[in-house]
Amino acid sequence: MAHDDRRLRVLRAIVQDYVSTNDPVGSKALAARYDLGVSPATIRNDMAVLEEEGYITQPHTSAGRVPTDKGYRFFVDRLSTVKPLSAAERTAIEKFLDGAVDLHDVLGRSVRLLAQLTRQVAVVQYPTLSRSAVRHLELVPLSTSRLLMVLITDTGRVEQRVVEVPVDTEAETVAELRTLLNATFTGAKLAEASDKAPGLVEGAPLHLRPLVAAVSATLLETLVEPSEDRLVIGGTANLAQGSALDFPGTVRPLLEALEEQVVVLRLMAEVDSSAVIVSIGEENQHEALTGASFVSVGYGSGDEALGGLGVVGPTRMDYAGNMAAVRAVARYVGHLLAES
Amino acid sequence: MAHDDRRLRVLRAIVQDYVSTNDPVGSKALAARYDLGVSPATIRNDMAVLEEEGYITQPHTSAGRVPTDKGYRFFVDRLSTVKPLSAAERTAIEKFLDGAVDLHDVLGRSVRLLAQLTRQVAVVQYPTLSRSAVRHLELVPLSTSRLLMVLITDTGRVEQRVVEVPVDTEAETVAELRTLLNATFTGAKLAEASDKAPGLVEGAPLHLRPLVAAVSATLLETLVEPSEDRLVIGGTANLAQGSALDFPGTVRPLLEALEEQVVVLRLMAEVDSSAVIVSIGEENQHEALTGASFVSVGYGSGDEALGGLGVVGPTRMDYAGNMAAVRAVARYVGHLLAES
DNA sequence: TCTGGCACTCCAGCGGTCCGAGTGCCAGCA
DNA sequence: TGCTGGCACTCGGACCGCTGGAGTGCCAGA
Question: Which parts of the sequence belong to the HTH deoR-type domain (chains A, B) (predicted)?
């Protein structure tokens, strides 16, 4: 149908225009700026239909149209074309991320990069512990009855916990314990740690059992919220920009939600590294994110996502561009983590 | 002089009133709310003098007076009394910080706590590496020519770096190296590491020398900016609150400066754990902080501050309360770090 | 099925007015 | 000498009404 086709082109034009100008877009402006081949009057008719169907809306009678959440959703699913990054952007990414010195650094740079590329608030999750594998498990005696357990994962995360041990320990005992634990856990996915732990205790020499039990217990504790997941946030300054324009009341609830982390982590829980997820406006259950959109994707070398990253911004955002940026950064982060 | 004395009481009242109401304060309101024992007319005369001297100013002719930076400075130095925290606040602090599981957790909780207590943006610096001592230095072979060096300090910081080693290494060599390094560095302040390194290389067995050199070099690298200093920021949502009221243009430059970290770190460089530092408005060299005040103090168990923490907010802030909160939190953080 | 024309609506911006808060000054009083 | 009450003055913010322009919906005609 030539009809429907044009109507969709009108919708696309409305979204694009509104995203770039932030003004409700009228039929005349649309006809002038986009080559739709018809007069403003015809566009008006199409707009009336689009409004009827819920894709666009009028702030008030004598204003232009603005896309609704439904309109953005349709745009993202059906109308937007992948916008490849410019060569300059690609080299910028490489330059920015190269020379990162450790995981903290990689993620810190990523979040800044993402914020800069998209001009939105960027969010990067640390690699989930349970999906990482143990690279090394170190024990440092603090006193005779306390050990510092340091867990180093293959993704570069380091977690430390103090373990209160039930019996006094000597340096050699600790060394023995360390060897045993590393023999068991090194290379294993942390998700499997809970399976291995009981067998390990039973199989251990008698004098080590209480120690093994204490350390394993602590190890398992680190695998639950909240230490399991961590988040880096950047580019909040981008919210201050057009705050009044984009967020009706204030950006306060949004900033609070971001600092809460939990909200974002819940959104991130669903990411996977194959496809970019977009969550628009009212689709977000959390109230504070109701006026915002969230674009995210998982990163990780293989099939399973180690963690997620994304951007949060007004529903009026450049979805195509942000999706491309998010995906590109995720890919680089994945590579970097695979290397080290 | 009874004169001067009353004038100062007027200034104090102006600051207090303006801080709590955010309205320029007039002579009548002042006479009504504060028991100054004189009529509005007299207060007006005092105000004229205070304005003459530069402590207060009028936004426009028919408005009340507002403290200037100089006024706040005087208030902080001479007029404000220490405001002890309420019992509820004290227990809140303990409750909040107890149960912290590692350094990251302690600092994360501190920053949230501080933001909540003061309703300002809170900033907490990680313990400076060079002022920390080595608790343990771990080496994990990644491949025959690459080692992962993990540095654990007595303050709980963990830094990791990949060391490219010039020769292929075996497990035993690594063990030897680890023992040697720990024998030398464990317990030593990192600031002294650069002194010890050369001697260590020379004193090492011949076959270890290139390795020792490589690892020491990497170790020294971690002691310079930017990894030397790290920052946690929280409570940025508090900026969104009365943004229009407190920050004329927008909060954007301020948020950017905070994310830069460098700016804040420079301010933090001067902290020491004995006294709270207050930097008001124009006193801050950095342009973005020109309309803001910064209240900070060092934390640390002993004499030397391990790091700093503080809050950033509008010059119109509750200095007495914020100073008390900052100091209290710093004290707890100091204790917590000393314990572990 | 599209187009141009037309009447209609409604917001944003502008200028003018008014009110009240706050001031400075001055004369009188302790 | 210092405090007070009175008074005239200033000025910004709120309120109001107007107008212009952008944008729409509808309709008749191509």
Answer: 36-63
